[in-house]
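check this:
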Amino acid sequence: MAIETPQYTVLNKAGKFELRKYAAFITSNVEVSADSHAAAGSSGFSYLAGYIFGGNQASQKIAMTAPVMSEQTKNGNFRVSFVIPSKYSIKNLPTPNQKAVTFDEINEMNVASLTFSGYTSEDKITKKTDELQKWMDEKNLKQIGSPIIARYDPPWKPGFLRKNEILIAYKA
């Protein structure tokens, strides 16, 4: 059984870089205080996994999706997000037991992406983000919001087999 991911169309591809148009989707989110994306992911994952594994007022299980996303917020915290399966709407999602879990409806958007494998150390995240931002500058693409780190694989998967992305929304 395949794990659901947000739907998108590739607008342009240049090696490891892509320009994509994402369809609208919903995320479940938690904001955590941490000193790195890795620490934020560990902390935030438990809240969000608790929600989808039945930690909600309906005790309803919700399918796991990919990727697990994290981004740094303006106040220095991290926002960790799961994509909600497409069969749900904001209206039919069960209410979380944890008040820290929130939802967002993400509108259709254009995104520049850079795909890479391996572990997502802070140094690697910085290097890959800088690489994507430089490519975007060369294409005259205006960044909107913070870069998002997208991790597609479980922690036990060997690093060389892992798929990760840096995603940056841009103004079309």
Q: What stands out?
A: The mean pLDDT is 95. The beta strands are 8-14, 17-22, 25-32, 68-72, 78-83, 102-106, 109-116, 142-151, 164-171.
